[in-house]
Design goal:
Layout (H helix, E strand, L loop, with lengths): L21 H18 L3 E2 L5 E3 H9 L3 H6 L2 E3 L5 E4 L4 H10 L7 E10 L11 E10 L5 H16 L5 E7 L3 H15 L8 H9 L10 H7 L11 H14 L5 E3 L13 E7 L7 E7 L3 H4 L7 E7 H6 L10 E7 L5 H13 L4 E4 L6 H10 L4 E6 H6 L1 E6 L8 E4 H10 L1
Parallel strand pairs: 1-5, 7-8, 12-13, 12-14
Antiparallel strand pairs: 2-4, 3-4, 5-6, 6-11, 7-9, 9-10, 10-11, 14-15, 15-16
Helix pairs in contact: 12-15
The structure holds histidyl-adenosine monophosphate (HAM).
Histidyl-adenosine monophosphate binds next to strand 6, strand 10, strand 11 and helix 11.
Amino acid sequence: MDKIKSLTGMLDLYDDGDKTNLSAKLFYLEKKIKDIFISYKLNEIRTPILEDINLFIRSVGGASDIVNKEIYSFNDRNDKGIALRPEGTASVIRAIIEKKLDQTNHKLWYMGPMWRYERPQKGRYRQFNQAGVEILGIPEGMPEFEMISIVCSIISEFKLQNCTIKINHLGTQKNKELFCNALVKFLEPFKEFLDEKDLQRLEKNPLRVLDSKNNETQNILRDAPSINEFIDSSAIDLLNSIQKYFSDICNIEIDYSLVRGLDYYSGFVFEAVSSDLGAQDSFLGGGRYDQLCAKLGGKDLPSIGMAIGLERFAELIALKDDSVKVVSFLIVTSNLEPKAYKIAHQLRSLNKDIILDIHLSDGSLKAKLRKANKNNSDYAIIIGEEELKNNTAVIKPLKNELEEQVTVSLDDLYSFFKSI
Ligand code: HAM
């Protein structure tokens, strides 16, 4: 019979113990990043993965690639248009408005899968995971520094090399409009040299032409007007100040051509890129979106946020052999021996820092020891019928060849386990 396969661009994440696997790195990242978020006193928010499709049309934007070409959507049994979320920000703001919390400040984090129907390639999936932060209710100023501080903490925690945080300022809505008009005016005479994609961008969302991957377009853009001619000096001061105060921690570059693919941004925007990633080099992105809440029917709620692409970030890290000790618990008896499980339970309660791996399958002691070595265990605790009868256990060191295997009483086993 034909086997059913997973959908294109959607990964099964499974940690098989190999630390070089993307899955192992991603699971590790999730844990570590969560700890960093908590250390910044961010609160978790978890929204549904399905939303009314209009949420994304009104936020991410009807002209964006995401809504135009990439959204996964369907009509439910009631003929309502539903979308799998392509990003997290719109859902967070929807939830805050719905809970009538849009008049106060919030510092939030979330983690979970997102969906975009993109052409899969290295670092680009149709289902991928993001870890995001949204700081709501505070106008431009301190939150920008807090956000860059979070980004720097994450980059430093994983000692990422070869990465740059690009920052830019899109100005106010008015500045953005004036810049767009100037850009369109500049590009008009070059229309015949633009490809189909850039022509569409010029028509629907001119700022996105700056993001073009086409070399010819990039050559033309060299003489184009730049956003820094249209924004206030306070915006330029902010960029300079962020660069000045964080450059000793992370590589920060002011890039006036940085635009983001989602429509809701104005003001400060940023993206982190790594030269170790190839074509899809951006592993994190965000910015200020002061108008979004009002646009979705809520109060004026000045906000800023960012999201990390966890699969891309995972590509950049190497997992060390962690210092957590692993002990394999080998029960070698012909019958099911509940007493042995009780001993294991007891051990676990005595030292929560140890990973105690009970080998559940039948098999010879030799096979079980082979598996314990493969699992990188530090010790094996072996219990057979003899040991159960005498209330003893065997402790066999697996990493230190100089240490001898010993038979000990259960009390000594408990003391030993506590001391590892
Ligand atoms: P974004 O730039 O669209 O921003 O996505 C953030 C990150 O998600 C990207 O930098 C990238 O690492 C990852 N990503 C995006 N698409 C894919 C894909 N197809 N496969 C793998 N990774 C991908 C947002 O989503 C905004 N909501 C960020 C934000 C939060 N802005 C304000 N608050």
